[in-house]
Design brief:
It is a single chain. By secondary structure, this protein is an alpha/beta fold. The strands form three sheets. The chain has an eight-stranded parallel β-barrel with strand order 3-4-5-8-9-10-11-12, surrounded by six helices. Strands 1-2 form a two-stranded antiparallel sheet. The protein has a two-stranded antiparallel sheet with strand order 6-7. The longest helix is centred in the middle third of the chain and has 17 residues. It is globular, with a radius of gyration of 18 Å. The two termini are 34 Å apart. The mean pLDDT is 97.
């Protein structure tokens, strides 16, 4: 396993992170026993960063992860979120952020979090995030409830705008650094480097677009993006490799991203993802992928409030 520091936090994380959303049956029903075994397999294999949220499965993912980490909490960097609790359920008030942290600590069976972040901030009022949410997170940090605090979201300009007004330690950006969209470097990365903000990349497979089974029903990507993803999957198969392997390796090669989160709900998936550490992408295949995705390159779907787009 490879490890990197998370910005200037002093926290070291594995370059492959365990995305725990599947533990909440977000992408379909998973066997609870196998999901628990996947957590153990990941820890034994050197994966240290585990990321979850009360939103995933309406607290189910947190509860399952907390159970799986009993006796092994000190071996992991545990990250969760607050502010989002359902498809259209958001509350970024200081009171709710504080209560949410306490609830997550109980479900995760721990007395502190390594990382606590406001979830999908483009759905909130930017002024509230700056003036109320982030200060509440800082108070929790001062109380020893979280070692580092930050924000997450899809819209890069919104992340940058908020972080330019209220200092954060780290961010999670999703669907903006993968084989189909790579504008993270253009919009957010220069600012993050300058400020020493740790960046965690999520959704290396574009939330399922770059998988053989395709996207879940709720996926927001328009048909042309889904179709381009399907063509990439077939192209990789023709080259004798899997699109998830290529996609994850592509993300791991980013020089500044501290960790890339990938969903895992079985021991088989854990081992498949670990192969990306030693895999190298054929330059010919990469060029063909770039040609395939060119018509939809860097296209993203709307998310959050109109004023927070970009």
């Amino acid at each position: 396993m490879e490890y990197r520091l998370l910005g200037r936090t002093g926290i070291e994380v594995s370059t492959i992170g365990f995305g725990a959303a599947p533990l909440g049956d977000v992408y379909g029903h998973v066997d609870a026993g196998e999901a628990m075994a996947a957590v153990q397999e990941a820890i034994d294999s050197g994966i240290t960063l585990f990321d979850v949220s009360p939103y995933y499965g309406r607290t189910l993912a947190e509860s399952r992860l907390g159970e799986a980490l009993v006796g092994r909490r000190e071996k992991v960097v545990l990250a969760t979120k607050c502010g989002r609790y359902g498809v259209d359920e958001f509350d970024f008030s200081a009171e709710r952020i504080t209560a949410s942290c306490e609830e997550s600590l109980k479900r995760l069976r721990t007395d502190y979090l390594d990382v606590l972040q406001a979830h999908d901030v483009e759905f909130g009022d930017a002024d509230q995030i700056v003036e109320e949410t982030i200060p509440a997170l800082r108070r929790l940090q001062e109380q020893g409830k979280a070692r580092a605090i930050g924000i997450t979201g899809l819209n890069l300009k919104n992340l940058r705008a908020i972080a330019s007004r209220a200092k954060v330690d780290c961010m999670i950006s999703y669907c903006r650094c993968n084989l189909m969209v790579d504008d993270l470097d253009d919009v957010l990365m220069p600012f993050a480097k300058e400020q020493g903000i740790g960046i965690i990349n999520a959704s290396p497979l574009h939330m399922g677009v770059l998988t053989e089974h395709g996207v879940p029903e709720w996926h927001p990507a328009p048909m042309e993006i889904r179709e381009a993803g399907r063509r990439v999957v077939e192209l990789c198969k023709a080259h004798g490799v899997s699109a998830p392997l290529v996609g994850l390796r592509f993300c791991l090669e980013h020089p500044y991203v501290s960790s890339t989160l990938v969903g895992m709900a079985s021991r088989e998936l854990v081992q498949a993802n670990l192969k990306a550490l030693s895999f190298r992408i054929d330059p010919v295949l990469l060029a063909e992928i770039e040609t395939t995705v060119a018509p939809v390159h860097n296209r993203i779907w709307p998310s959050g409030r109109v004023e927070n787009q970009g």
